[in-house]
């Protein structure tokens, strides 16, 4: 009887590309805020937080510390809850 072996490749982050030049500063701020919110949302979903009501600001900030990003603002925390809500 043959035995199946599972081989996994180490995950590598996607290549970073420079942001397009010539945009207003607000565009870059909102772009980076959306990226941070997506990273935090994915980390919360992976940890078992599936409802926005259970993702309070404290829990989001603890998750940010755990994954190694700066503590998010209240606006970013609201975006994370919105992503959890609309991802269902």
Automatic annotation (TrEMBL):
Span list, region Disordered: 1-24
Top-level taxon of the source organism: Bacteria
Ranges of compositional bias, category Low complexity: 1-10
Record-given protein name: Transposase
Natural source organism: Streptomyces xantholiticus
Lineage of the organism: Bacteria, Bacillati, Actinomycetota, Actinomycetes, Kitasatosporales
């Amino acid at each position: 009887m043959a035995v199946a072996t599972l081989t996994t490749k180490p995950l590598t982050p996607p290549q970073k590309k420079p942001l397009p030049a010539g945009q207003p500063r607000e565009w870059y701020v909102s772009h980076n805020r959306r990226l941070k919110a997506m990273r935090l949302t994915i980390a919360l979903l992976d940890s078992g937080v599936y409802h926005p009501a259970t993702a309070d600001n404290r829990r989001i900030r603890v998750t940010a510390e755990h994954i190694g990003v700066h503590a998010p603002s209240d606006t970013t925390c609201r975006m994370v809850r919105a992503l959890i809500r609309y991802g269902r």
